[in-house]
Amino acid sequence: MWDWLKAADTIHAVLTVLAAIGFFHFWIRTRFWFPRYVHWLGGFALALGLACLAILPPDATINQGGWGGLKKAAFVLVFPGVVYFFFVFYGGQHAAYKHARQPNLVACPYCRDAYVIRGDKCSNCGQEVAQ
Predict the structure, then answer these.
(1) How far apart are CA 45 and CA 43, in angstroms?
(2) Which of 19, 60, 82, 83 has the fewest beta carbons under 10 Å from its own?
């Protein structure tokens, strides 16, 4: 029984990695485009990282030893990095890109089974949708 669960877990992990690779490939192909609200979320995450850095006590581990500036910069940049990473990883960028590029998408008034760009023919019934 446990072997089946382990196999299913492995298959799930492989499919998740493949989907993530596909989404990151799409992100590169669209020249790293993001909708404006993701940049707002990234800016808020950056402000959150700066606020966390500001409330750290002077004897915190991040202030000990060398490379203090680099460690602080990495600490602050982790927060917006998480926002952007998970937006791409879970396919939000792909969905937002498709929606932004097809604003004239409407339901076919003849068959109601397909969505068509105004002025094109319906792929389901072949009727031309008016502008």
Answers:
(1) 5
(2) 60
Do 106 and 118 form a contact (C-beta atoms < 8 A)? yes
> Comparing C-alpha atoms, which of 101, 127, 92, 100 is closest to residue 20?
92
Cα(14)–Cα(21) distance, rounded to whole angstroms? 11
Question: What is the spatial distance between Cα 31 and Cα 98, in angstroms, rounded to a whole number?
Answer: 14
Contact 87, 93 (CB under 8 A): yes
CA–CA separation, 30 vs 22, rounded Å?
12
Q: For residue 55, give both structure tokens.
A: 């409330």
Three-state secondary-structure class, residue 115:
strand
Give dist(CA 129, CA 99) in Å, integer.
19
Q: What is the pLDDT of residues 69-107, one digit of tens each?
A: 899 999 999 999 999 999 988 888 888 887 777 666 778
